[in-house]
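Please go through the sequence line and C-alpha cell line underneath and see whether the fold suits the sequence. See right below:
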Amino acid sequence: MQIKQTLLYNWNFFRALRLILGVIITAQGIASKDWMFSIAGIYFTLMPLLNIGCCGTGTCYTKPIQNNNEHKEIAYEEVGK
C-alpha cells in the first residue's frame, strides 16, 4: 500500500521533470552502450519514482522558529550630514 501511494501521489512538476530526464539518460546510455551512463540513468529514474533524495521525503525539514510574541523596542540614532 505504501509503495502504491508513493508511486501515484504527491507528483509535482520537478518530480516529473526528474523522471523524464532519468529516462532520457537511461535511453542514451543504452543507445551508446555505455553501461555506467545507463546505471546512472536508472538511478536518476528511480529517485522520482520512489520519491527519494534530499527533501523528497521530508528529511531536510526543519522546524520553524516559534516567536514568543515579544516585541523589542529598537532604538535608532539619527546620523547627521
Notes: Residues 2-50 form one domain.
